[in-house]
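User: Assemble these into one structure.

Assistant: Restating your components, then the assembled model:
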Amino acid sequence: MRPALSLSVVLYLAALAAALLLHRIAVLLPGGAWLAAAFHPDATSVAQLTLHFSLLPRVAVALLAGAALGLSGVLLQQVLRNPLAEPATLGISAGAGLAITLADALAPGLAASWGRPFIALTGALLAAVLAFGLSAKQRFSPIAILLAGLLVSLYAGAVSAGVQLLANPYDLSFYLWGGGSLVQQDWSLFRSLLVRLLPVGLAVIVLVRPLTVMGLDEAGAKGLGLALAPARLATLGLATCLAAFVVSAVGVIGFVGLAAPALARACGARRIGQQLLWSPLLGALILWLTDEIVLTAFGAGREFLPTGAATALIGAPLIFVLAPRLRAAVAYARTATIIRARHPGLILLLWVELFLGAGYGALHLGRMPQGWVWTDAMVALRWPHLLGAAAAGMLLAAAGVLLQRLTGNPMASPDLLGISEGAACGRIVATAIVGPAAAGLVWLGSSLGAMMVLALVLALGGRGRRAQPDRLLLVGIAANALGGVLVTLALLAAGPAAGSLRAWMLGDTGLITGPAAITAVALVPVAAAALVAMRRWLALLPLGGFAAGNLGLSVATARGLLLLAAGLMTATATLLVGPLGFVGLMSGHLARISGFHRPLPQVLAASLSGGLIMLLADWAGHNLAAPDMLPAGLLATLIGGPYLLGIILVRRSSRIGAS
Amino acid sequence: MTSRRAVLAGAASACLIPGLADAAGLSPRLVVLDWGLLETLLALGVAPIAAAETGNYARTAATLPVPRSVTDIGLRLDPDLEWISALKPNAILINSAQSAQVPVLKPLAPVWRFTIYDGSGLPLRNAVSVTRNLGGRIGRSQQAGSLVAATQQSLTPLAGYDGRSILLFSFLDATHIALYDRSSLAGNVLSALGLANAWGQGGGGWGVVPLSLPALAQSPEARLICFGPVPQPARRMMAQSPLWRGLPAVRAGRLRFLPPVWNYGALPTAMRLAGLMRAALARPDGQDRVG
């Protein structure tokens, strides 16, 4: 520990935030009245009341929430021995947020009678259990836990968005402030948060010694005569409580729990005792400073970028820097059982028939004003969105398999790597510049967005001497979060058109026209032809750059072309069905557990299943609640998410972090 | 106000007997995807065969009663195309913010697109021309003329008001408000009534500014008009927060609560806004309680 350095960082952050705060107060009140207003505000002076009941409690809540998140982060990182663990990356915050959203929408009375903190804690605990359960087979390796947490987080976020959409289709406040708002109008929130957090913080002191030992390995701990399991559980429980209480008070705030311990370590806090002291302090300062910057940038009252989302602007670059240092603690081998299909041709033929049959049924069966009707009168209206959704599913699935083979990582997919989000941002920016009518230019913009994220993720995630494909996913989380900030701003600027932008983000397929569907379908054979031409590369690249290079392949060229293909396919599909959904991920898994391992059959099988999933989601979205539409992308996520989690829990052959 | 009631009552009764309009051969089979256009049609005495989110309209906007004969065809931004096509409409009416739907609607029927909210900040003026335009297209020019005249009559400057400027807003949650600036329909009505909008910024744009609660403290002299619905957390906040109770307008009782009003409406909503504001400002300070 170099206390001088650490102290100077703390002082620097505090001075910066304090300067911004003083500037805001100076605008509000003359200097002489500050002290009086802070403690005994004049009930007739709005400026004094604002200082006492809005400005100061907001600073206090920011400091308290930041400290809790910093402490939660360092606890989780120590017990899991994982520098990227924090409530947000483990799905704990999203679980708490989902529980509150569900309670508010379905049972408002419950939230009032049970209390939001309790509901948040229940959701957080369930999410934590799920994330740990999913990674149990990997012996809680850092990578496996992070991926499970990421899945839980994405799924909880999608369900929250869906519940909000159904409860109130035009209320955007969830999008604007669901990401964490620190606005206060008195001290009550601060007091209740303090009362809950203080006992948890005190309990941590008891755990300092076990936590120190946890830094050692299992054998070392046993040598000291310590049973680690109870201490570990207690630590996880306390960390979960801290995060849940923060979420129930101010919403989901990401990255603070990640940044604070990292900064503490960077400042030289090596021992856990030091980290437990410095992380909450730094977390408090990081959140306070972020909030001051947001308030100064947008002006009082105009909180256009919620602080909970703004933390992504600080946290994402941090992940970019930290990810290369992360190692998979448990080496994960590719020795999982490989199931091979006995008659791949026959099975593929069956899948084709299933796909065609489902398509035929979806074209004819529908819910009309008079009830369920089998008719061919509606085929002309149904084929564009059914075909468009199916084609998008196929393209996403093919892109998913491409990325999975290129990176040798079974979890790589356009959605998890942030490429879909990149395409969505590209579309939003292009539409803002050239208008929605210039379809070709919007497609170009979307493709550029996808390629930029792909390049970023690969450049940052693929560095280092030995390829570590799982870094990709972590950089992908960060890219997704950065994209989310842009989407929030775009929704705010869209005015009355915000509703349709949100519908598209959730995977609404109602606006797909015949020509758009045909364009996407036309790309399927082009993509297939390219894959056939490149199938040798696809078979060789998973061996790793070195081996593939020995086999006489220009690795750079092959990777470049395949990545270009993946980016273009993702962009085309995203324009049709939005960035949501695990289709790219699910379909590859479906193909693999059905026994397709060679590149070409795998791509074919994955495309068929991806197309089928989106076809069914689109049909269900158009009919189950008719005349109200449910977004197909959201339905695919709701159906596919549990399925994917189920696969990971049940099948040994498709464990997270092993192929 | 009698003329307003007369127009609205006439509209309602005509809607209940749509056969009359059809018999005259004047009323085509219309599907409406915008609530502003829906209420304009109803005020002109024409019931469409279908409209988007009729249930939601009755709950949250409710300027005019929607006849039972009007089929609900789903969400405004994503209606059920199959249901629309099964109803065989002569025309589909949308607003310009729904233009993204034109490609999928065009195969079903001619699409009539009307612009009230275009970022110009003059929805009231636009609604007048849209009313005349729409009336002309469905052979109801005369009724359109009366609707415009009745609206203008309801918008005469308010007599005997103390001249305080006014902040128009509604609650989004306990700590966030949607503030209606001069570009909003309510803002347009406010200036037509000869009243000043205390939110000096803005003008142009969509008319609705999302802000956090302390923004209300920036205009200490203003009178506050709060549109419903008031969410439960906001009610709790009003009961407890010293900052809220310390706001000069709240302390002095310069606060009015109005029912929910659709903030992207047309002339019938403008008339209703004028009536509600007139009645609210005629009440003495300190009487309004959140309903």
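Chain A has a mean pLDDT of 82.
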